[in-house]
Amino acid sequence: QVQLVESGGGLVQAGGFLRLSCAASGRTFSNYAMGWFRQAPGKEREFVSAISRSGSNTYYAGSVKGRFTISRDNAKNTMYLQMNNLNPEDTAVYYCAASSKPMSIMSITTRYGDYNYWGQGAQVTVSS
Asked: How far, in Å, CA of 21 to CA of 72, rounded?
């Protein structure tokens, strides 16, 4: 199995930026499709972005498209989420997740149930 640890969360003003990192350990990182989810207080966990095993394919939720960028460095066993032009609606705990579901090296998944490994979460707070 793989262990995931997020870092880089914090407090930022509206219009600001943050970069989240997700460090993986354990099994071979490139074997896993990866994703970011977030959960705001009183709301269900929602999909944010996903990236394929190779890093060549990415996908974003409509609410973050054009502002967030997902990437991964398989040599460093790390995934990133660059978040620009943040707004208060982005306030949430952000979780990185790994999927061991069999899929091609270029496939992604946005389904919560396809991810079987989760980090502990990183708090992102955007003030107005």
From this structure: 9
Confidence bin at 27 (pLDDT 50/70/90): confident
Residue 60 has pLDDT above 90, yes or no: yes
Q: Give the integer Cα–Cα distance in Å for 22 and 110.
A: 17
Q: How would you write the chain as a 3-class SS string?
A: CEEEEEECCEEEECCCCEEEEEEEEECCHHHCEEEEEEECCCCCCEEEEEECCCCCCEEECCCCCCCEEEEEECCCCEEEEEECCCCHHHCEEEEEEEECCCCCCCCCCCCHHHCCEECCCEEEEEEC
Per-residue CA distances from 7 to 24, 62, 96, 115 (Å): 12, 24, 10, 19
